[in-house]
Amino acid sequence: MAGRRIYAQLLVHYSASVPAKQTVFNFNSYIQLYIFNQQRLRADGILNPNLHKALLVIRHINKRYMRLNGLLLFCAFVFCTSFTFDTNSDRLCKDNEQIVFSFLLTKNHKVVSVCKDKQNRYLVYRFGTKDNIELVYPAQLDNSSLTKFKYYYVHRGGGIKNAGFGDVSLSFTNDNVTYKIYHDWRDEVPTNDIGIEVTINGRTTNLKGDLKTQIGALQDLDFEENEITNSAEDE
Known about the structure:
Oligomer: single chain
Number of domains: 2
Helix content: 10-25%
Strand content: 25-35%
Number of helices: 4
Structural class: alpha+beta
Order of helices and strands: HHHHEEEEEEEEEE
């Protein structure tokens, strides 16, 4: 209950301090900054260890909040526990997998799905439609799959006043073609973009995604630091 209570308090504080037209995703940056700061305090021995479970609950609730993407803030406030939605029927993840990040392209409505095995055994990218999956990467779905992707994530919370931003991407190269699935946002402008960049022989094409169809968040991979490495930390 402590996690839900803290989450509700953060939501009220955020709603009171940020204009209503701000994107839902900015709240996710706000929550992640809170979790990071609390974990840093805990690592320094300042935070009471009893709050560790509360932080895990906050993280879980926030992931669910992001996947509802588009519902009003008051719905998240009561946690929407009495509602169920069949929003995944057109996605390309299998029954033994969970959606990490998925959306439809704006032009041809083809589906992009980054999926992860529920037992954390592999990560896979699929593109196409339910009836015609055009690309699956990698072909071998095992622990080695995680090393075949490059993950990049940098962000700064704080909203407009702190020029908050986020750049997160997952990229790979297959048959000399580089694919970059991305989500970029800026609080100051503001902008919020998802899509795929496809680079062939040095020429890059940007295939934009429809934000209304987004499920999941690539930055969730940042919590899997034992499974996949954030290349931004090497810069």
